[in-house]
Amino acid sequence: MRQIVHLYTLVRWAKQNSPAYTAVNQDLFVNFKAWLHTKNWIKDTNSEKISWNKIREVKVQWNNPDIIEFKYDFFEENYRKLNCGLNLKLTRGRKKKAQEPKLDKLYNNPISITEVKYKDLVSLCDTMIIPKKYEYHDFYKNLKHSKEEQGDDEED
Fold first, then answer.
1. Which structural domain range is residue 71 located in?
2. CA distances from 139 to 26, 41, 72, 146 (A)
3. Is residue 127 part of a domain?
């Protein structure tokens, strides 16, 4: 646990200009996939299909978080609107009040790094570029690593 606290300190110090980076625990990341299929992401409020790759500007207001306003061109005067608060489940032509799905953790196990990154970190420890006095060596040498390009992450 002590090494992880030091890692958070290292992350904060990694940026020289304000504001500093903030390290967070991977338990704070949730998987939104179960939630996405229940919402409208296809047509705007004028029933026009949304071309996501053509969007150039997006605006969401804190007091109306279900409405995403967007423009395809920076010079458009008015925003188009997407009401992503609409549920897609219909019952006899009426909108059904759906419960929001439970959001599961995005990662159930520690995130793996590639073997190449692992070897680089260990070599930085071995050559004392990462000083031993900060006690990071054990943390880096015990990181989960994999030969796979992306680690052991689940596929999207």
1. 31-105
2. 16, 42, 47, 16
3. yes
Q: How far is CA 37 from CA 31, 75, 135, 154, in A?
A: 12, 32, 45, 19
Residue holding tokens 């609409």? Answer: 86
pLDDT (tens digit per residue) in 10-43: 555 565 666 665 666 778 888 877 777 777 788 9
d(Cα 146, Cα 130) in Å, to the nearest integer?
22
Cα 156 from Cα 151, distance rounded (Å) = 13
70 inside domain: yes
- pTM over 0.70? The answer is no
Eight-class DSSP state of 43: B
111 φ, ψ (degrees, to nearest 5) = -70, 135
Domain assignment present for residue 153? The answer is no
Closest CA to 42 of 94, 90, 86, 97: 86
